[in-house]
Predict the structure.
Amino acid sequence: MTMKRLINLKRAEARKIYLTYAVVIAAYIICQVMSSTGLFSSSMRGMLVPICAYMVMAVSLNLVVGILGELSLGHAGFMSVGAFSGVASAILMQGTITNAPLRLALAMVIAAIFAAIAGFLIGIPVLRLKGDYLAIVTLAFGEIIKSILNNFYLGMDSEGIQISMITDTTRLLKGGRLIIRGPMGISGIQKIATFTAGFVLLMIALMIVFNLVNSRSGRAFMAIRDDRIAAESIGLDITKYKMMAFVMSAAIAGAAGALFAMNYSTIVANKFDFNTSILILVFVVLGGQGNMLGGIIAAAVLTILPEKLREFSEYRMLLYAVVLIVMMLATNNAEVKSFLAGLNPFRRKEAA
Amino acid sequence: MIFLNYFISGISLGSIYAIIALGYTMVYGIAKMLNFAHGDVIMVGGYICFYAVARYGMNPFLGVAVAVVGCTLLGIIVERLAYKPLRQAPSLAVLITAIGMSYFLQNTALLLWSSNPKVFPSIIERGSFKLFDGRLSVSHVTVLTIASCLVIMGVLTLFISKTRLGKAMRACSEDKGAAQLMGINVNATISMTFAIGSGLAAIAGALLCSAYPTLMPTTGSLPGIKAFTAAVFGGIGSVPGAFLGGLMLGVIEIFAKAYISSQLSDAVVFAVLIVVLLVKPSGLLGRNIQEKV
Amino acid sequence: MRKILTCVIILVMASAAFGAPAAFKLGGTGPLTGGAAIYGMAARNGAQIAVDEINAMGGDIRFELRYEDDTHDAEKAVNAYNALKDWGMQLSLGSVTSKPCEATAAENFADRIFALTPSASSAAVTEGKDNVFQMCFVDPNQGTASAQYIASKGLAKKVAVIWKNDDVYSKGIRDTFVEKAPEAGLEIVSETTFADGNDTDFSVQLTEAQTKGAELVFLPMYYQPASLILAQAQAMGYAPKWFGVDGMDGILTMEGFDKSLAEGVMLLTPFNADAKDERTQKFVAEYKRRFGEVPNQFAADGYDCVYAYCQALAQAKATPDMDAATLCAKMIEQFTTMTFNGVTGENVRWSANGEVTKDPKGMVIKGGVYVGLD
């Protein structure tokens, strides 16, 4: 982002962007210090990378839902494409590139490319639709991606790479390795994802999205969101702009997927199902559509919350559901809002 | 003959999807919200029916009636507590609340009724009618499911077109503001629609569990998503659309399993949905505004 | 943060001051909520009974058990594992289901915390990890045993297999069964699958088995889908012989299940709740009393895990003040050498790679109860 462009922005707008960067950087430094001085529990340390991945997912989906104004119910599908292509490529590179951070970075780039291709292919039919019909088609694509990956086999031996669908028909030579094993996913992943990598990815995602939003294209996105017909009548190529945002969002989600997957020793396609898509949507809605910082905070809060509820054992997920409903009521119903405000003057402080 | 067997299986599965889809489509038509907790109301209906019949020895049909009353009450409570306060809120907020409600119902069921699957007592005797020297078999449950689906569809259509409340519903779905001006209590009408949809869910629950007799806290969630797809398939908001969409989805699913791949059947179902929406962007019968609830 | 710190300090002081007689901290993760909760709850309940029995005996070995919910998800399992680590877990029960256990086993290996999983049966769980062991039967053995059993008893020539595509357990058994069946002289005429979310309607799978003339249908799966298959086959009027594996155990105790549907079903299982030996009867009675249900194989595996730990710790003369890494080394030594008798098998032994060897028993359901085959 060039300084010149920032200066041209409205002040409030620029302040919001700076604030977002500042909060993310400050949070990174605090977490890094607490983690290295042993103030963090294993539980918190273990969640740092997935939280980063979910934050990036929130930024990615916010581009589609908040800025473009279209509902996507299948965003976990792109994460899944990224996770599988990223991990598979990292495994393939294991022998040639021994530097782990470099391999992680390359894997994330490859993941982003694969997810962008998926986003483009899916965008062609999806973006011709509107509203709830568009939403259901994204849900359908999410399920199709899951179904295909559940039946996809990829192996490698000294002769090269072999691929098969539905049943494993790869004939690997001795010493070969079946990397993607259909419904069993990928096992034995080297855990090379780090918190710092997550932070860098989040910063890059934010820069891309802010740059896009505050460019000519970004203004076009918002014009389309606010009034599609008016935008069309002044000659905006709606499909082109929508596709641009959609592909960009998919690419970011793909990189997040690769980061996420490489934090665990195993990954399966069923992880990236409808429920995961919904989870990410909840981050965006709770954080405020179009509000990047809000989505990022919501991602962190809602990932940590179920862990903090562990002491309630069986009642944990029930409480989570109640908290979710109450939060939606509290942020969207005028009566409840004013009631809560009267109850506790420090409510805002607490929420932050 | 095998083809016909598969076709009947598909119609049977589709009838269940259709009844569930009717609940989705009615609520959507009026409140313009996707009630993701609908599948879980089905599960609750299944459990109520199970306890009435298996534990308290009620007549199965009486058991279904108890479940209908129970689910209607549940529907009213859920609507009052979680959805009504959000009438003016953005639709996404309502969607998330519905999902929260879905988690809530599932986890409450888990605590109340444990995760161990219960085997649902069949409403009618298990067995089948044999046709063509036994080469074609149609199970009793299939006949009951298809018949119930047709009856419900008929009654619902009559209700919407003939009764006062039905007309009020149609008016609300067309134009809420105008309906209000005409003296229709829009809020009450929406609440009523939820109550009816939840009552229908109980019947769907009993039929679903009779055809596929295991009952767990997660029993409703997948049929729920499939039925939602069916509702969109037929054109969400349209009652005959939900019926047609449900039946077609069931048949496509079974055929895909039988003739393409049992592993990829879901992918095929969703691919067909995408193609249909590309050709008819608002579903098969979506433009049929007169029929809209 | 200061608040948390204060809490931690108070907790540490409190536990030092009022600490109960020292006990080994035993932790495990499993699905306690969600669609797979049935397995996690069973394993936890079984382990809890064993812990209470051992503590009541008042010997040197005492346990403190804690189970954390992983919702059958690798990510949540690692979170749950870390929460247990923060609690001070010394010995681990791994995870209940296979995929989450692959993820936690990697952590166990890295942290040098010994793990004995009750029921995660895939080979990848123990592969390359010297400190991760399994209590349950390894999947591939069951496929071989089943094929040989069917052939040697002349139960059928034409066999159909229905298996669950996205389940490591089901796929593992199916793979070896399909490989060994032709060698044993069986012909597999139909092979169909199902998956999560597609596990209610089996009309297509059953119709295909019927039209291909299968005399026996092999069901390598858990009892819940199996009960649906039996009910739908009856509704269709299809009555082949049925052959199941250890996951089938539990079908007779499902609430509301029509036992006549399972008449004649054969299965190989290391545990059955109707066994007449004293140990099993005592466990089953206690489980029924406390949880109101008949224990399934997961509960039995959880129960056996704790007793196996008890035996190994006693033999190693381990004390609760040892750290996890010391215990880990001692446990590896014990588990690779000892022989254990539990409710899921006699003369149970472990190989160095963590796999268990025990003999499955052939059972047939007659008149609503299990009767030993042979």
Remarks:
- The longest strand of chain A covers residues 152-157.
